[in-house]
Amino acid sequence: MIATRFVLVGCLRVGNEDVIFVLPSSQSVARASYHARHQCSFLSPSFTMRSGCGLWYRGLCPRHGIRLVPGHAATFAVCASSLTRTGLSRLGFAARMAFRNGREIVPEAASDNCTRVLFSGVNFPAAFEYTKEYLQPYDFIQVDAVPHEEIPDKIRDYDICVVRLMHFDSELIARAKKLKLLVQFGVGLEGVDIESATQAGVKVARIPSGGSGNALSCAEHAIYLILGLLRDQKGMNKTVQERKVGEPIGQTLFGKTVFIVGYGNIGKELASRLSAFGVYILATKRSWDSKSEKGELVNEKGGVDCLLKFASRADIVVTCCQLTSETKGMINERFLAALKKGAILINIARGGLLEYNAVKSYLESNHLGGLGMDVAWLEPFDPSDPILHHPKVLITPHIAGVTEISYRNMAKTIASSVLKLHAGKSMEELEFVN
């Protein structure tokens, strides 16, 4: 009896025998599958391949009922007398070992080749749950969610960290001795010290919102907040509690001028949906590409120099831009003073775009006609914050992008990237910033 460590590849049909085909753990499973499919005409029907999060190989030895786990590093006890070498020798691989006659496969307790993924924090639980679900078949991947306060002591053991509402500064990054990738489950990377990560050799990335469903989810939520304020959602709740009907009177979105601050992926999705409501759309961004954005549903375009001019004409302002050193606090006293009296402000981007005291003052004076926020200055939200209790304020708990379609797609992107990193492949689905 001999024992050695191999990686499961598939179930092969050699003559009338069903055998397990394996490779040494240092070999590439993808390479093994390529050779198996192109050099063998006797693959078992039970050996299947399909794409998903990377490549997933799955097989079943019909005679012995042995389930094959792709890429799983395991210890195989092989009876030398039971080896079938004739067919396997034709493959030209370094390993020519098969397991038959129903003997038991005993996995190692832990693999040195495990890739460990850390989700920072326990908020946004679907992000962790869906990603773990997609990576469940892969025994060489470990996925954990850890509370923020425990991250400094545990991050040293992980290869990948998925950022969720936590600041990764130089001190924390220095603790991450094994870390290869910091990736935001979404778009915003304002919490990551990118320079420190770069110096430490850690790649930093986000998931592009355009194709994930995140942008369209945020756009739909912005419209939900707009309509909730125009129709006075809090007033409606009050009316129901008072057992009344026929009030409050609301406003229509039709005929309004909407100013989109930050015409990126979310802004584009928002404009395409707003057009059906019969609105006039103003939009700003740092630079416009006349070729790629020809025919966009924007009535007037401008740069950052048009912020105050467009604000003065808008009935509704929607902030969709990223939080940077340039945009932090951009919705300040000067901006709010430029608004029409009664204008509505919607923020689905980051709380830091708004100056707290200025917003509070303009709400209290009734110059600001309504505030819809999916994000706040501090998160989780402080339920005692007086702004949250204002009758013209609607707030949701940072769920604009939290939909089944967006979180499923983003979890698939994270899972695919984890498998590619494990295999040493490039991760094209991510947008790297360093």
Q: Could you name the key traits of this structure?
A:
alpha/beta; seven-stranded parallel β-sheet; 434 residues; six-stranded mixed β-sheet
Low-pLDDT stretches are 1-111
Rounded to the nearest angstrom, the radius of gyration is 28 Å
Net shape: globular
- What's the assembly state of these chains? single chain
Structural class call reads: alpha/beta
What is the number of helices?
13
Sheet with the most strands? 7 strands, parallel
The portion of residues forming beta strands comes to 15-25%
Number of strands: 20
Strand order of the largest sheet: 15-14-13-16-17-18-19
Q: Distance between the terminal alpha carbons, to the nearest Å?
A: 51 Å
Look at the structure and give the mean pLDDT. Answer: 79
Tell me what the structure shows:
The chain has 434 residues and is an alpha/beta fold. Helix content is 27%, strand content 24%. The chain contains 13 helices and 20 strands. The protein has helices at residues 29-39, 86-89, 125-135, 151-154, 170-175, 194-199, 214-230, 233-241, 265-274, 307-311, 333-338, 356-364, 404-423, and strands at residues 2-14, 17-24, 48-52, 54-61, 66-68, 73-78, 106-107, 115-120, 141-146, 160-163, 181-184, 203-206, 257-261, 280-284, 300-302, 316-319, 343-347, 368-373, 393-395, 431-432. The chain is globular and about 65 Å long. Mean pLDDT is 79; it is low at 1-111.
Q: What's the topology here?
A:
Blueprint: E1 2-14, E2 17-24, H1 29-39, E3 48-52, E4 54-61, E5 66-68, E6 73-78, H2 86-89, E7 106-107, E8 115-120, H3 125-135, E9 141-146, H4 151-154, E10 160-163, H5 170-175, E11 181-184, H6 194-199, E12 203-206, H7 214-230, H8 233-241, E13 257-261, H9 265-274, E14 280-284, E15 300-302, H10 307-311, E16 316-319, H11 333-338, E17 343-347, H12 356-364, E18 368-373, E19 393-395, H13 404-423, E20 431-432
Parallel strand pairs: 8-9, 8-10, 10-11, 11-12, 13-14, 13-16, 14-15, 16-17, 17-18, 18-19
Antiparallel strand pairs: 1-2, 1-6, 3-4, 4-5, 6-7, 12-20
